[in-house]
Fold:
Amino acid sequence: MPDALQFAFEALSQARWPKALNSAIEDVPARFWCGTCRREFVVEDLLPECPDCHVPSGELRAGRELEIASLEIE
Structure:
């Protein structure tokens, strides 16, 4: 949830270290695996249904990542 993460950065920046935090959030789309079609697919909503065979998928392959590339404290 990029919006929630951005809000947390802004709140922390204002409360503890004014002007010390800078964030850049890159959204990673959710990619699921379809066992029936044997391929990955991207979903935009919360329903992980294969666009080809319409079978729901429970195997999330990407979109859960969180990486902090760098941290500088002034």
